[in-house]
Every structure is written in C-alpha cells, then in structure tokens.
Specification:
By secondary structure, this protein is of the alpha+beta class. It contains 11 helices and 6 strands.
Length: 491
C-alpha cells in the first residue's frame, strides 16, 4: 500500500449542501416582496385639457420654433439669449449638476465590469520567537515581501448593479431636464424683463410728450393771465400738472435703470453691462397658441414635467437595488504572485502563490436594516409619483390660466384703446370750442390730462399683454405658434 500524493478531491456533496444552504437562507428575502409602492403614475391620456385650452389651439398647423424669442424681431434680445445667457449662473449650476449625474452613470457602469489590482510589499522586521515563522527566522531580524496581482468580477444574478446603472441613467435625465427648465426659465425671465424695459421707455415717451403739451398750455395761460384774460388759479393748476408729469418722468427713468440692472443680474453680469444696453426695438406679436389639446402632446415640451417623470423612474430603479440587496452577492476572484520570507527568495519559483474561486456573501441578520432601506426607497417612489402627478395637473392649470389670463388682458387692452380714441375725439372738440371762444385753455388742459392718463393706461395694457404672452409661453414649455394679431395692432 502506498501513500496517495494526489491533491484532495472536492467534497461534492458538501459543496452542494453549502449552495443549498445559501439559497435557503436567501429565501428570507421573499418577505421583502410584501413591501411595495402604493402610488400610481397618472397617465396623461386620462386627463382633459378643458374647453379654454381646446378653444385656443392653433388651427394653422404651425410647428414650434426652438428660437421662439425671435418672434419679437429684436437683434439685441436675440444676442442676449443665444450668447450671454449661456454663462448665466442659473444655467451654469444646472449644467454642473448634469455633469455630475453623467459621472454617476460612469461609476455605476464601472461596478458591472471586472476589476484588477496590483500590490507590492517589502518590509524589514523582527520575527517573534513563538509564532509560525520557522528557524532560522524565529527570534531574528529579516525581511518579508510580496508581489501580487488580483482580479474580481461580480456576478449580477439579481440585477442589483444593473438597476443601479439604470437609476443613474434616470438621474441624468432628471438633471438634463432640470437644465432645460433652468434655461427656459432664464429665457422667459429675460424676455419678461426686456418687454418691461420696452414698456418703461414707451411710457416715458408718453409722459415726455404730455410734459411738452402741458408746458405749451402753461405758456398760453400765462400769456392770457398777463393780458388779464385768465386768473392765477388756472396758472397754478397748469404748473401742478407739469410737476406731476415731471415726477412721472423721474419715476420711469428709475424703472428703466432698474430693468437694465435686472437684465444684467439675470445674465450674471455687473451693472456696467447694463449701461451698454440699447433701447429695445420690439414688435407686437400674435398671442401664443397651444399646438395641441392632447395633454401628452401639450405638456411634452415642459422640462419640469419631464424631470418629474424621470425622477419617478429613478426612484423605481432604486427600489430594485434595495430589493436585490436581500440576495447573496457572488464574486469571482483570482490572485497570483510571489511571496517569501526574505527578499532574496522573492523571485524564486517556489515563492509563487495563486488562487481562484467564488466568494459569496449573504445578509443573514442585519437588525431590519435592509427592510427599512426598502421601505424608505418605496416611500421615495411614492413621493416622486405624487410630484409627477402634481406636475401634470399644475402644468395644465398654468396653461389654462395663461390662456384665460391673456384673453382678460386683451379685453382690458381693447377698453384702454377705446378710452384713448374717446379722449382724442373730446380733445379735438375742445380745441374747436376754444377757437370759437366757448371754452378756456383750462378746459383744454383738463382734457389733455385725461388723454394723457388714457394713453398711459393703454401703454400699461400693452405691457400687460406682453407679460401675459411670456407667461403663457413659459407654461407651454416654449412650444407655441403665434395667432393672428388683433385688428388695429401694429407690427
């Protein structure tokens, strides 16, 4: 009988028993199936846009332009939005978040790939007398070293890493949509400030024209007073009207400066940038019209809705990651290298060490941490769904409010224009009566004042229309087509 020097054979029954024990232990993960989300994503097809939106949709078959701000026909505005806005702080912040989300995708993808590492060690040490070191090393000084290369690969049986990568991709979509939303918000805010600046200039023109008219009336009254045809009361009234108009001009000068500074601040520029802004040269545009009454199409251009939808998708994927954490992790590992006591023997053939095999880890008892994490991720998903559902209804409300609000300010604009026409006619009659000696310059001054106020209200109504148009454009996500201009509106 001779000694059997062959390597020991693996104990196959023991191996199978170990595997069965691992999978039996993983059965405790089935209890996690009882933890499920309670919320349900709203299907936009179940929503109705309502009669206000349906009545406002464009009938021309026009398509939205990505450069919607060019409808105002102002080259300076185009330059502010297409070049200067790119460096605005709000856009730069959102873009940085998007780059960070992209880096998270790369990190999640790296977790699904094999890894390899190398290491080396060389130390001088005193070997203890009573340990595993043999003579002559025990109780003496010597050296120890190793050169090792190792590799590992995680077998993603339960999809934990796949779900983590999908969640990172969804988070990138969230960041991208948020960047789009920041850009849309900045552009609409810029156009809003720009049209308000234009309105301040127009109102200042009206006030300056009124000041010139009132100065002429004052000169006439002063001449009549010197001739004994008018009293000091009329002169005082005329001067008071001039004082009020000058006060209005000063107020509008302050508003013009404030609007310039607002535009510079939106772009992240200093007040000196505002000094170089020329007066706007905007033209009137037709009211923005929705391109569709179907909620899914109507809200398809809204980046905030897209961000909320992607956030819900990311939360769903993170539930998958939390659920997969209940199951065993299986890694394939391998290493090879040289190890020796005494650096002189490090590169000898007998110093080679190598190994390979699977490594399995299984959560058996964690005090309920995994279940708590899964419940938390489920709650996060329910919250994300609620945000998305709320974003849908809020977006529809904003569009409906934008349509009805614009119709209301259009009606007020019509009334203001009618008042201007009325007082212009009265002024013509008043001038005729004055030439016939049937009224005085004070009467004409009163009518001039009423016309000035009516003209200023008309200019304010024009500004409200422009601001309401921008609000509706924002509600539509920038996807709109202009309706025909109302009759009598200048291009």
């Amino acid at each position: 009988m001779h000694d059997d020097l062959s390597p020991p054979r693996p104990n196959r029954p023991a191996t199978w028993l170990a595997c069965h024990c691992l999978f039996a232990l993983s059965a405790c993960a089935t209890g996690s199936q009882a933890i499920r989300p309670a919320a349900t994503l709203t299907d936009p097809a179940t929503l109705s846009s309502g009669k206000d939106i349906e009545g406002a949709i464009t009938q021309s078959g026009a398509t939205a332009s990505s450069a919607w701000w060019t409808a105002w026909g102002d080259p300076q505005l185009d330059g502010l939005i297409t070049s200067d806005a790119l460096t605005a702080p709000s856009v730069a912040t959102a873009t940085a978040r998007m780059r960070r989300a992209a880096a998270s995708i790369d990190a999640a993808a790296a977790d699904r790939l094999p890894t390899a590492n190398g290491s080396g060690r060389a130390v001088g040490e005193r070997f203890p007398d009573h340990s595993v070191y043999p003579a002559p090393y025990a109780g003496s000084w010597g050296s120890e070293g190793s050169l090792t290369a190792s590799a590992s690969y995680a077998l993603d049986f339960w999809g934990k890493r796949r779900e983590a990568q999908a969640a990172a991709s969804a988070r990138l979509e969230v960041a991208r949509a948020e960047a789009d939303d920041a850009t849309l918000l900045l552009r609409t805010a810029l156009v809003d400030a720009y049209v308000r600046l234009d309105a301040a200039y127009r109102q200042r023109d009206i006030a300056t024209e009124g000041l010139a008219r009132r100065q002429g009336v004052l000169d006439l009254i002063a001449a009549r007073e010197r001739a004994g045809l008018a009293t000091g009361i009329e002169t005082t009234q005329a001067r008071e009207a001039i004082t009020a108009t000058r006060d209005e001009v000063a107020r509008l000068d302050g508003e013009i400066a404030a609007r310039r500074h607002q535009i510079a601040a939106l772009l992240g520029r200093d007040p000196a940038f505002a000094d170089g802004l020329a007066r706007p040269s905007l033209k009137a545009i037709g009211d923005p019209a929705p391109l569709s009454a179907i909620p899914a199409n109507l809200l398809g251009a809204r980046p905030d809705v897209a961000a909320a939808r992607a956030a819900a998708e990311a939360a769903a994927r993170e539930i998958g990651v939390a659920r997969a954490a209940f199951y065993p992790d299986v890694n394939l590992i391998a290493f090879a290298g040289v190890q020796s006591i005494g650096l002189g023997s490090l590169l000898r053939s007998g110093s080679i060490a190598a190994g390979a095999g699977p490594a399995v880890s299984l959560p058996i008892f964690d005090g309920g941490r995994l279940r708590a994490n899964l419940r938390g991720k489920t709650a996060d998903y329910d919250a994300a769904v609620a945000v998305y559902n709320g974003a849908l209804t809020e977006a529809l409300r904003q569009v409906a409010d934008g349509v009805t609000g614009l119709a209301a300010v259009r009606a007020r604009q019509d009334e203001a224009n009618a008042a201007v026409a009325h007082w212009s006619h009265i002024l013509d009659l008043q001038k005729l009566r004055e030439r016939q000696g049937l009224s005085t310059a004070a009467d004409r001054l009163s009518t001039e004042t009423a016309l000035l106020l009516a003209t200023r209200r008309a200019a304010e109504a024009d500004a409200r229309v422009a601001v309401s148009q921008i609000s509706l454009i924002h509600a539509l996500g920038g996807a709109w087509a202009p309706a025909p201009l109302p009759s009598g509106q200048a291009q």
